[in-house]
Specification:
Chain A is of the alpha/beta class and 464 residues long. Chain A has 18 helices and 15 strands. Chain A is globular. The longest helix of chain B has 45 residues. Classes of the chains: A alpha/beta (464), B mainly alpha (322).
Chain lengths: 464, 322
């Protein structure tokens, strides 16, 4: 993981020099600067372009197994290494000459890691997790490889929304692995103590944000520490449906989705409500997305709007009496839920082209895809056969998760909206993340969203 | 001074002649030259790893930064073109960048005097006759032995709106504070965190400096009737100038490049109030994928830091000469 050197302790010897040498050093720097100008003026653009040329891919049935052992490096953020061990073991059993070395990277660090390691000339990463909304940005940066020659049309094996999310300009540039949706978890004991009727699991009787907030406040009065906790509390993935529910759109319009539209009336209304939850103390300030599931898991929160991937952990905790309902919408607004998840990208500069493609085929297409080897599949697979098996898992048969199967199946096909597709997504995600954090911390929604709109206009100018 | 091997008188040539028997002059010079060349060569061989490391790890990256700051390219495309000072112009036009510069200067103006003042105070306290001074010294120094990431996480939890610090404040009858979540308090919270780590560390250098001041000066001053304050101002401070200069410069540099707490706790917020330059450079380079603009920003940070450090050197040297 890339982390700059901490500031302390600083080695004293470097700085305890007399003043004169500083001036002399300044002279050296000036000289260096002059050299650099000369170097910069005659940089080798052609060389760099050549390095970005695409490799030529074979058809899926022409891929050749390596004749001697090779190791492919897989950098991922979707799963912890131990969850994928059985997958890799099954893969190596089927393809004895290929070993997979998995490097798990925290979600927030994945962009940085990929940028540093894919920008170099060396193909030290072969395949990597690509968050679906980032696919267009990664493609424009030259990180991804067009997989169409090998995999062509995979529509009969993978769900349509996931294929769409992995396609840029009609070319399949990543192998879809998963899709996703959200649930509203509630703590039955905390609601009972406050005399609140738990929300229905029927998508037709979807709870409203207003009601959940009011009930959350009531539960707090009866002893709950928090009324309503949002899983990824400052991420666009979690919060986009709020604005969409009021008809505010996905945040960008125009050619290539490069005109920001995050300060419309609907966006402001949605996030005034969101900021109010924190100002009123119904939702917690000062916690990070990584810490929120624990607030519900430890029985502190009445409601938790979060992913189904937390369910196995919650079910394991026998002291936690909980149930699930559909992800709420605003009163009178459209039912809208987040979706999209991970796909697998292929580094253009890989030295193990066929082995990597064989691995991608294994993960996404062979049999039911990777999920058939995973003990507890947390996230619904994009592979349609795998998806059916996902819902047959033990977690979904527990009384706590009653109704979850029907809710998720309904949301993925009926209410899911994809995140905005734009080459400027990485900047968008970063700026919106900071904006949501500011709104949580008390900045008026209008001011925060106006600033975000301005910042996006500035930073997207380079793509126009 | 010339060192002589035998009695000087045995050579009748006066004080400046070689100390060895005068074999033919030419041979002497050659032997010496080759010897000094051999010395130089040996020195070079020993220094080579360091020189190579300096070139590869310091000078080349610096040259690279300057080169990058004059180029521009689409994020991650790997293709860039020479644009002269366009990146610096873009920075000059950016409100967000000026906000970063301003916050960085404000932060340093507050944190450095505070840390050094506190470190000096504690150093003086712990070198005076105090019961269990060694224990106190260790307690104060301990935080700098904790990795900065650990301290960051601990303080992040302690200063949460519902955290233990607010618990104490409320128990004492005060209102809960927002700390890292308030644009008005975030810099102060960072100062608290940085000082908790830094004060003990810088204190040890000042203690070493205090130990170097001969006790006889204080004895003499006491005989002349000087009080504690007078002794501190007339003896301690002037004689502590060198270690103080080092601490001042090193602390300034450390605080200029403070990064981990911001990356972990605030992401530069709320409302960019903690968006210090070092963090903004990182964000521009890795989050927004613009290494060229980040290089320009880094150069500005370096120039700013160098200017301040040079002023510090000059100020303390001038007072040295006077």
């Amino acid at each position: 993981m890339f982390r700059p050197r901490p500031a302390y302790p600083l080695r004293p010897a470097r700085l305890a020099r007399p003043a004169q040498s500083s001036w002399r050093r300044a002279g050296v720097l000036t000289l260096a600067a002059a050299t650099a100008v000369a170097v910069a003026a005659c940089g080798g653009d052609a060389e760099e372009e050549a390095a970005n040329a695409a490799p030529s891919l074979k058809a899926a049935d022409e891929l050749t197994e390596p004749s001697s052992p090779v190791t492919i490096t897989y950098v991922g953020a979707a799963y912890a290494a131990e969850d994928l061990e059985p997958v890799f073991a099954a893969f190596t059993e089927a393809h004895p000459n290929i070993t997979v070395e998995y490097e798990s990277v925290p979600f927030d660090e994945l962009n940085n890691v990929l940028q540093v390691r894919l920008d170099g000339d060396a193909g030290d990463i072969d395949v990597f997790d690509a968050d679906m909304p980032r696919v267009a940005a990664y493609e424009s940066r030259g990180y991804l490889t067009d997989l169409t020659p090998t995999f062509g049309d995979i529509g009969d094996q993978v769900d349509a929304a996931s294929i769409d999310a992995s396609t840029v300009d009609g070319l399949l540039v990543a192998m879809p692995l998963q899709t996703s949706s959200q649930l509203l978890y509630y703590n039955r004991a905390l609601l009972e103590a406050a005399g609140i009727e738990p929300p229905s699991a029927d998508p037709a009787e979807r709870p409203t944000w207003e009601q959940v907030s009011a009930d959350g406040a009531k539960a707090q009065a009866a002893g709950a520490t928090w009324g309503l906790v949002f899983d990824q509390l400052d991420r666009y993935y979690q919060l986009q449906p709020m604005a969409e529910s009021l008809g505010g759109g996905n945040g960008a319009t125009g050619d290539g989705n490069l005109e920001p539209a995050v300060n419309t009336e609907e966006w402001v209304t949605a996030f005034e409500w969101y900021g109010k939850q924190y100002a009123d103390g119904i939702s917690p300030r000062g916690v990070t997305a990584a810490e929120t599931p624990e607030l519900f898991g430890s029985g502190q929160a009445a409601f938790f709007a979060g992913g189904p991937w937390w369910a196995p952990g919650f079910v394991e905790n026998t002291e936690l009496d909980f149930g699930v309902a559909p992800y709420p919408a605003f009163e009178g607004g459209d039912p809208v839920t987040p979706t999209g998840a991970w796909s697998l990208g292929l580094n253009k500069k890989t030295a193990n082209l066929d082995a990597s493609l064989i691995f991608m085929r294994f993960m996404g297409l062979d049999g039911d895809g990777f999920s058939q080897y995973v003990e507890n599949i947390a996230i619904p697979p994009a592979n349609t056969a795998g998806s059916e098996k996902y819902f047959e898992q033990a977690t979904f048969s527990t009384p706590q998760m009653a109704g979850a199967r029907e809710i998720l199946a309904n949301e993925i096909s009926e209410t899911a909206v994809t995140r905005v597709k734009t080459v400027g997504y990485i900047e968008f995600e970063d700026i919106m993340g900071k904006t949501f954090a500011d709104i949580i911390n008390g900045t008026p929604a209008q001011d925060a969203l106006d600033k975000a709109n301005d910042d996006l206009t500035t930073t997207w100018a380079k793509y126009q | 001074m010339t060192t002589t091997v035998g009695p000087r008188r045995s050579w009748p040539h006066g004080p400046h002649t070689p100390t060895r028997p005068p074999a033919p002059g030419r041979t002497v010079r050659t032997a010496r030259l080759s010897r000094s060349r051999r010395d130089q060569l040996t020195a070079l061989v020993f220094l080579l790893p360091v020189i190579l490391a300096l070139l590869g790890l310091r000078l080349l990256p610096a040259v690279d930064v300057v080169a990058d700051s004059l180029r521009r390219g689409l994020p991650g495309s790997g293709v860039s073109r020479f644009v002269g000072i366009d990146n610096f112009r873009a920075l000059a036009d950016s409100d967000s960048f000026w906000n970063s510069v301003q916050q960085t200067l404000v932060f340093n103006l507050l944190v450095n005097p505070l840390q050094i003042g506190a470190a000096l105070l504690l150093a003086v306290l712990f070198t005076s006759r105090l019961p269990a001074a060694g224990l106190w010294r260790t307690v104060v120094f301990l935080p700098s032995a904790v990795p900065i990431l650990g301290s960051t996480i601990i303080w992040g939890i302690a200063l949460r709106p519902e955290g233990p610090v607010n618990g104490v404040i409320t128990a004492l009858g005060g209102g809960p504070q927002r700390f890292f979540t308030s644009p008005g308090q975030v810099l102060w919270s960072l100062i608290l965190l940085a000082s908790w780590i830094g004060i003990g560390y810088w204190m040890t250098f000042l203690i070493a400096g205090l130990r170097d001041i001969p006790g006889s000066y204080y004895e003499a001053a006491r005989l002349d009737g000087a009080g504690a304050l007078r002794q501190f101002l007339s003896i301690t401070l002037p004689l502590l100038r060198r270690p103080l200069l080092f601490v001042l410069v090193a602390d300034t540099v450390a605080n200029f490049v403070l990064f981990a707490p911001i990356q972990v706790l605030t992401d530069g917020g709320p409302e960019e109030a903690s968006n210090l330059l070092m963090y903004d450079v990182f964000r521009t380079a890795y989050q927004l994928s613009d290494p060229y603009l980040a290089a320009a920003e880094l150069l500005v940070l370096l120039v700013l830091m160098l200017a301040i450090v040079m002023v510090q050197f000059r100020l303390l040297r001038e007072s040295d000469e006077s």
